[in-house]
Amino acid sequence: DATLLLKDADASSYVYFPTGARGGKVVLPDAKISAGNTVQIVANSAGTITIQPANENVLINGLPSTITTETGITLIQTGGDGKTWVTA
Question: Which superkingdom heads the taxonomic lineage of this protein's source (predicted)?
Answer without folding.
Answer: Bacteria
